[in-house]
Amino acid sequence: MIVFDLHCDNGHRFEGWFGSSADYESQRERGLVDCPECGSKTIGKAPMAPAVGAKGNTKDTPKASKEAQLSNAPMPPQVEEALKQLAKAQAKALESSTWVGEKFADEARSQHYGEKEEAPIHGKATKKEAEELASEGISVAPILFPIAEPDKLN
Question: Which residues does 133 contact at the CB level (< 8 Å), separation at least 6?
């Protein structure tokens, strides 16, 4: 028995079990292999990493869940368009925002508590700082797409 990671032309990824590589090819050519999610018969093999056992002197680590696995299948056009629109919206929002760098948490607090006039800002905060701001009732949101810091631009 051999297991292949397969994908359809709609970007769905799934496993297929076959007696051999030739068995897979034969079934695919006869239209017997289809996507369990959408029924597409345009199926290809997804790149696979070889199964390499862990070294005997390493500790066991929990395996990633199937939900956390990434796919090498082409991105569906709707997802690509949605990501482009989100990136545009973020860029537009940042146009009117001031970069405050590592001082983000302090600046957000100063505005929240009335020490400074409220204005849109963006910068860096650790997870702990963001959690503390949220627990104080200060609204913060992550930047979804990476941006270049103004002092790091050419």
Answer: 105, 108, 109, 125, 140
Pick the closest to residue 2 from 16, 115, 10, 34 (CA basis): 16
Residues 64 and 131: their CA atoms lie apart, in Å, by 25
Quick: pLDDT tens for 86-101: 888 888 888 888 989 8
Concatenating the DSSP letter of every residue in 17-64 gives EESSHHHHHHHHHTT----TTT----EEEPP-----PPPTTS---PPP
The separation between CA 104 and the C-alpha centre of its own chain, rounded to angstroms, equals: 25
Could you report the per-residue pLDDT of 141-153, keeping only the tens digit for each? 887 777 777 766 5
39-75: b (≥16 Cβ within 10 Å) or e = eeeebeeeeeeeeeeeeeeeeeeeeeeeeeeeeebee
Taking the model in full, what pTM does it have?
Answer: 0.48
Q: How many CB atoms lie within 10 A of CB 129?
A: 17
- Grade residue 115 by pLDDT with cuts at 50, 70 and 90: very high
